[in-house]
Fold:
Amino acid sequence: MEIPKLQIGSLTADIPIIQGGMGVRVSLSALASAVANEGGIGTISSIGLGDIEASKKEYERISREALMTEIHKAKSKTDGHLAINFMGVLSNVNDLIQTSIEEGIKMIVFGAGLPTKLPALVHDPSVNLVPIVSSARVAELILRVWNKRYERTADGLILEGPLAGGHLGFSEEQLEHPEEYSLEKLLPEVLEVIKTYEDKYGRKIPVITGGGIYDGKDIARMLSLGASGVQMGTRFVCTKECDVSNEFKQAYLDAKEEDIVIIKSPVGMPARAIQNRFLNDLEVKGKLKIKCPYRCLTVCKVDKARYCIALALINSYLGDVDHGLIFCGQNAYRIDKIITVKELIQELLSELKEA
Ligand SMILES: Cc1cc2nc3c(=O)[nH]c(=O)nc-3n(C[C@H](O)[C@H](O)[C@H](O)COP(=O)(O)O)c2cc1C
Structure:
């Protein structure tokens, strides 16, 4: 079998694999550029790059400059395809989108919030817009609004199922029955919804599936169901190039299936993480002190939040996992070694060919 390429608008990747954006600081330039060098699309996360103790103006300046630095570093290491991941709930999301466009980024991935106004921010048609959706209903809403308001459509959609890592676009009740919302069930519904817009705009809208994709067999299954590619996060955490601390990676290697849990995040969405000392302590303490001069998330109710999610994720990034939150996908417990991005992608592609 020949490995299919992945075309997203004006951009063609040699292999149908996107490394998903992982905040806070899990996917930065080292990981994204390594993936891009292997022919995939490497995603830098724009989330949590600021200094949470800084004032609003300072926070925004620091995160803007940090994003610029990561883009420069990635571009110095690769000529391959890079994307930037944004969350709609970030207070400075528009500023960061502007920064990435100015820095020549050609693919914007937007999740955690409806990107109904995104086309109004991006006037350059060579910048590809890729919303993350978790249902056909949301896909149809975004495409309908973009069509009516802006006479344009998405360059691709990432369909993220209930087994993914980090924040999830499903309710806690839905996550108790992940099989009812499996990618196998959701994908045909999304493919149906996009038909109207593919016909109207005369081009394919690639759907990329993510959440629980572990090996080449999973990729083959998704492609056979009509996906144009896959987005993977968890497997890329345990690579040498991943930007996060070794302690974070070790927590993946040590995790057993029963350690992987759904938590209620201060963002107001459920999220998947590893049950660790931080989460155990939180159960006893109930609530931790929060210093929040900026308000980095529009949705975080600081007075009610049990902890600062940015600080908890930064702690883990730095290696203080006992005081930190460790996001992961449902299949993290299956990983037993840290390898290079090259080795991982070669393994995935040879399994894909075999399948
Ligand atoms: C540690 C971690 C952090 C993540 N952070 C983000 C994020 O900030 N924004 C986002 O859109 N998705 C985020 N994700 C989701 C990934 O981009 C990816 O879509 C998902 O993890 C795919 O499922 P998999 O991990 O089972 O491969 C995160 C995932 C992980 C594991």
Observations:
- The CA atoms of residues 266 and 309 lie 7 Å apart.
- The radius of gyration is 19 Å.
- Residues 6-244+336-354 form a domain with the TIM Barrel fold (CATH 3.20.20.70).
- The chain has a mean pLDDT of 96.
